[in-house]
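Worked example 3 (structure in, sequence out).
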């Protein structure tokens, strides 16, 4: 099934209803949302399954978000960010980052996707990914494929990726030494 048709099909199936609105930007988060984005970015270090590896909780604030955005830009990346905002509270509930490099215009990288735990179960993860893929299809016609990485036990993220048409392309192992 073509990517656009698949996106429309799954967007219709989403349960977010009228409680959430979708937002998007490229490269730089609007000032009004940056502190909230920092909260979600910090949760990537605590909420993402990591098998037997252990990671320290990361501290994120507005300055760190701006720093990483600048780093991405300096590395030649266009960063498409999609987000869902809860209308009732104004809270950012979800975000997803999809990046394209000017050095490899045929390849996009699906980076972070996270839904805050108390907003899960409304298919927001799929919705923000679909929004980014749609932007990619219209704005970056040279992209032929998207790569991403998931922990093998991350069933919720894998279910979304498989539904969107991602297929396994390889496996790698990570090792950690406890000192
Ligand atoms: C993957 C993720 C974005 C999916 O969130 P979501 O879009 O809200 O998920 P869905 O709406 O598709 O949820 C489907 C069901 O699974 C449940 N669910 C989703 N994520 C869950 C989780 N991490 N743990 C337990 N249950 C979860 C939902 O509550 C829902 O249950 P229901 O059908 O009984 O209502 C979310 O789990 C998450 O943010 N995980 C942490 C970050 C992460 O792993 N990112 C990927 C890194 S590669």
């Amino acid at each position: 099934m073509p990517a656009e048709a698949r996106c429309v099909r799954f967007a219709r199936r989403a349960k977010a209803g009228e409680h959430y609105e979708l937002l998007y930007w490229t490269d730089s988060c609007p000032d009004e949302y940056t502190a909230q984005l920092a909260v979600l970015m910090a949760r990537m270090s605590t909420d993402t399954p990591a098998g037997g590896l252990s990671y320290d909780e990361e501290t994120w604030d507005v300055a760190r978000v701006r720093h990483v955005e600048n780093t991405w830009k300096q590395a030649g990346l266009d960063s498409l960010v999609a987000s869902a905002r809860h209308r009732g509270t104004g809270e950012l509930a979800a975000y997803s980052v999809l990046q394209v490099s000017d050095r490899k215009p045929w390849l996009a990288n699906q980076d972070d996707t996270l839904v805050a735990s108390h907003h899960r179960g409304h298919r927001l993860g799929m919705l923000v990914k679909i929004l980014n893929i749609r932007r990619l299809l219209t704005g970056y016609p040279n992209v032929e494929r998207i790569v991403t990485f998931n922990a093998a036990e991350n069933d919720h993220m894998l279910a979304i990726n498989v539904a969107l048409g991602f297929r396994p392309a390889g496996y790698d192992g990570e090792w950690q030494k406890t000192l």
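Notes: The radius of gyration is 16 Å. The pocket of coenzyme A is lined by residues 47-48, 113-115, 120-126, 150, 154, 156-157, 160 (CB under 6 Å).
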